[in-house]
Design a protein that fits this description.
Blueprint: E1 2-6, H1 10-21, E2 25-29, H2 33-40, H3 51-60, E3 64-67, H4 70-74, E4 79-82, H5 97-112, E5 119-123, H6 131-142, E6 147-151, H7 161-166, E7 171-174, H8 178-188, E8 198-201, H9 203-234, H10 238-246, H11 267-280, H12 286-309, E9 318-322, H13 337-347, E10 351-355, H14 360-367, E11 372-373, H15 377-381, E12 386-389, H16 401-407, E13 412-415, H17 422-427, E14 431-433, H18 443-449
Helix pairs in contact: 1-3, 5-6, 9-11, 9-12, 11-12, 12-13
EC number: 1.1.1.22
Pathway: Nucleotide-sugar biosynthesis; UDP-alpha-D-glucuronate biosynthesis; UDP-alpha-D-glucuronate from UDP-alpha-D-glucose: step 1/1
Domain UDP-glucose/GDP-mannose dehydrogenase C-terminal: 320-422
């Protein structure tokens, strides 16, 4: 099938590249001249494991092409994906202007070509209930083109997005047109392993499915983060609890890892939107309100622990922050725990030295010269009073810890992702403070060093 992708950001580029990989002819539209030039040179403007390689293969074969011209992209398209931003307004409502603008531009191009064939416009963007219906009614008033609108929320996890797209556990399609449903079934046919994985429903159900999924996952993380408080008070181990409840078939093991707070482009935004659309329905959503409160408190509690255990005033102390992206295998810093942690540390008068394997350039744009940027974690820790680990990059687990301990003012690590090995920390003389797990004090060794 001929497919057009309007907006080649994270979702659009992953979706378009994967559709090209299963045999569709894809034209991606990107209005940003610099990003378009990067794409037309065959380079991926974002970091996502496996995406560059897949893009190379399909760009070289001509399965996917990029343009800045909407009319050129939709000329032969049977399906047009709208993958533009739907940012929140200050009052919490969704800014529909980009979505409406893109939809109208597509319809104007189709009307100008006098196309008599049905074109299915697919909204990939996460939008509140009722948005797709409003968009369809808006487009009907704006154009005479023969179009239908469907909601097709994405369920991609950064770091595994290519795998998620190529092996989806479900495909959700919302709409009212049986013809559009059939079009989408053809589009996704190579990816459908079981028929019940392809789900059709009305617009509102599809829209709420995305919000419900992300709110539920954020709730699971937040519940475990709350458990770290009890674990630290009573001397329990949150990892044992995770295994104990995760082995229950009614609960399952996913999204039960405790840490210093979740982040990213989806969970914070979608939970906040869920709270707003609940208010629009006339009630206060205590559930989503609590999730956001727990997440905010967990980031602050992480810094409070550093201040309490540091053994010296935090004002004037040097803290190395390992990890700036909101999770490993991405350069995305949106709502990253490190954003709040660094700001809290700076507000308390600490000197911050930071490192990340992919997200450093993005974070530099936020804090500029307020932070000392280090090219490697060993350099960041040298001369520091403590390390605060906020991203679970696997490379952090294999560092030369004996060397690092020798170069620090005091060998102390606060592990906000519980990804380091306690025995390794003990054997290398560190004081080690994970989240909701027994600490490694090494008090005698530190006293001897002093």
């Amino acid at each position: 099938m001929d497919v057009a992708i309007i907006g080649c950001g994270y979702v659009g580029l992953v979706t378009g590249t994967c559709l090209a990989a299963i045999g569709h002819t894809v034209k991606g539209v990107e209005k940003d001249p610099r990003k378009l030039k990067t794409l037309q040179d065959g380079h991926c403007p974002i970091f996502e494991p496996g995406l560059q390689e897949l893009l190379n293969e399909n760009y070289a074969s001509g399965q996917i092409q990029f343009t800045g011209n909407v009319k050129d992209a939709v000329r032969d398209a049977e399906v047009v994906f709208l993958c533009v931003g739907t940012p929140p307004k200050p009052d919490g409502t969704v800014d529909m202007s980009f979505l409406e603008g893109a939809g109208k531009e597509v319809c104007d191009a189709l009307a100008e070509m006098n196309s008599e064939y049905l074109v299915t416009i697919v909204v990939k963007s996460t939008v509140p209930a009722g948005t797709n219906r409003k968009l369809y009614n808006f487009l009907r008033e704006q154009t005479k083109a023969h179009v239908q609108v469907v909601s097709n929320p994405e369920f991609l996890k950064e770091g595994t997005a290519v795998q998620d797209c190529m092996n989806p556990d479900r495909i959700v399609i919302g709409g009212e047109s049986p013809e559009a449903f059939r079009m989408m079934r053809r589009l996704y046919d190579p990816l459908i392993k079981r028929e019940d994985n392809f789900m059709t429903m009305n617009w509102e159900s599809a829209e709420l499915t995305k919000y419900a999924a992300n709110s539920m996952l954020a709730a699971r993380i937040s519940f475990m983060n709350e458990m770290t408080i009890l674990c630290e008070f009573y001397g329990a181990d949150v990892e044992d609890i995770r295994k104990g409840i995760g082995s229950d078939n009614r609960i399952g093991p996913a999204f039960l890892r405790a840490g210093c707070g979740y982040g990213g482009s989806c969970f914070p935004k979608d939970v906040a939107a869920m709270e707003h659309i609940s208010k629009a329905a006339g009630y206060e959503n205590l559930f989503t309100n609590a999730i956001q409160t727990v997440n905010k408190n967990q980031k602050k509690r992480f810094v409070d622990k550093i201040e309490a255990k540091l053994g010296r005033p935090i004002a004037g102390a040097t803290i190395a922050v390992w990890g700036l992206a909101f999770k490993a295998d991405t350069d995305d810093i949106r709502e990253s725990a490190a954003l709040d942690v660094i700001q809290y540390l700076l507000d308390k008068g600490a000197t911050v030295r930071a490192h990340d394997y992919k997200g450093m350039e993005h974070m530099k744009q936020v804090f500029k010269d307020q932070v000392e940027w280090c090219t490697d974690p060993v350099t960041a820790a040298a001369g520091a009073d403590a390390v605060a680990l906020t991203t679970d990059w696997p490379q952090y687990t294999t560092l030369p810890f004996r060397k690092i301990a020798a170069t620090m003012n005091q060998p102390m690590i606060f592990d906000g992702r519980n990804c380091l090995h306690r025995d390794v920390m003990r054997e290398n003389g560190f004081q080690y403070f994970p989240m909701g797990r027994p600490p490694v004090e090494n008090k005698l060794r530190l006293k001897n060093k002093v």
